[in-house]
Amino acid sequence: MLSWPEITQLVRSGDLQLLLRSPAVTTSYHRYKQALEDRHTTVADVVVHEKLHWTSKMLIQCAQKWPTANLQFQAMLSDPQLFALRTNDFPYDFPDHVHHLVLWSKIQIPLYVSDSREKVAIVETKIQQFLKANLARYNIQDFVWFINYPSLQSVKAVSHIHVLINSGESEKIDHILANGFESIGFEPI
After folding, report:
1. Which of 56, 100, 112, 115 has a CA-to-CA distance to 152 between 20 and 30 Å?
2. Which residues contact residue 156 at a Cβ distance below 8 angstroms, ignoring those fewer than 6 apart?
3. Cα first-last separation, the chain
4. Reported pTM
5. Domain coordinates of the chain in residue numbers?
6. What is the rounded distance in angstroms from the CA atom of residue 111 to the CA atom of residue 134?
């Protein structure tokens, strides 16, 4: 199990491949994926339809409306109807005080240049400002975030940001999940 300082160091250094699930959670995740395969469905389909209550049509419409990285950058995180915050059902191997949330987006988040590990600075800054402002509403400053590199993503069909919050106050996390995030400082599209 990684400590909070180790987690923050790995995220900041970009060594995301070292953020792993515990053996027990990994086994559960593989069983879950197999059960979905037996139902002739995928993790992405379940996330979209059952967890987020979105439709494939919504995602297609968003992809058509915002087809380029520039348009995606302008639209991402601009409207609460375009994103949803949930817990990670299969979190990485972190201490109990590290809460692993996922911010799902209907719009592709163009953080990386092509399929590389090179980040687009203005996208990174926008995400950081968005999360910092929203978490400050809940008096939380101790957090890190990342988007897995394309080669590490298990759900590629829906863009998502992993948000890791260091807080011993579970009720704060419950409050965040109940009330969600706002499009603070961004013009609605």
Report:
1. 56
2. 44, 150
3. 41
4. 0.93
5. 4-179
6. 19
